[in-house]
Design goal:
single chain; Alpha-Beta Plaits; 7 helices; SPOR-like_sf; SPOR domain-containing protein; transmembrane; transmembrane helix; SPOR-like_dom
């Protein structure tokens, strides 16, 4: 009977080579896949970073063609009554108390004319008594122009600070802008007010906080009341 002769050593050697090559292919495939995957992920990350948008800083743009005024919501001889009115106005604005001529005044806020009209509409809808407080200044005078520029810039900061979601506002831009204003003659009637405002801004902290909002409003109101024509 015939038979086939097998070379067992050769067969084992072939099996070993097959396993070795298979493992090598799998390892190379894994390494190649990892490299391609990493390159792909990096490419996506690069695309994502290039499409990211930086939020531009808000620039200070003073308004000179509109009036600055305050809205007053009562004058009281009893401070407790003033405090009650102040509390009732919190739903509309950020009111503050002013002591003048032995009377306590409740000021809802200081506004440019357009903003004041929006607030007045809310007061009328809620049938709340109010009066407008105007300030004296001359926009043909370089000193007064700078004062109103500074006041308007501060109002922008205070308006931002009044928002519920805002806890603090940076003052760096305001300080830099104010320091770049040109010098005016000291002979102007309101030069002392201008000088005080510039010093006040220069001494502000790097961030102003919501809990000091009433203090900032009160200072601004008092300086506006000092203006003369």
């Amino acid at each position: 009977m015939g038979y086939t002769r097998y070379d067992l050593k050769k067969k084992n050697k072939n099996i070993f080579m097959f396993i070795f090559l298979t493992c090598g292919i799998l390892i190379l495939a894994f390494i190649s896949g990892s490299i391609i995957s990493n390159l792909f992920i990096k490419d996506i990350n690069k695309q994502g970073s290039s499409n990211s948008t930086k939020i531009p800083k808000k620039s200070v743009q003073p308004i000179l063609d509109k009036k600055i005024l305050a809205i007053q919501c009562g004058v009281f001889s009893n401070k407790e009554n003033a405090e009650k009115i102040k509390t009732s106005l919190l739903a509309i604005g950020k009111p503050f108390i002013v002591e003048e001529n032995n009377k306590t005044k409740v000021i809802l806020g200081i506004y440019t004319e357009d903003k004041a009209n929006e607030v007045i509409k809310k007061l009328e809808e809620n049938k709340i008594d109010f009066s407008k407080v105007s300030f004296k200044y001359n926009l043909n005078n370089p000193c007064d122009i700078q004062i109103i520029q500074i006041v308007d810039a501060e109002l922008q900061i205070l308006e931002e600070l009044s928002k519920d979601e805002v806890k603090s506002v940076q003052t760096k831009q305001l300080k830099e802008w104010c320091s770049d204003l040109k010098e005016v003659s000291e002979n102007n009637k309101n030069y002392s007010v201008l000088s005080d405002l510039k010093k006040y801004i220069n001494n502000l902290p790097q961030e102003v906080h919501k809990e000091n909002l009433e203090e900032y409003n009160l200072y601004l109101y008092k300086k506006l009341k000092e203006l003369k024509i």
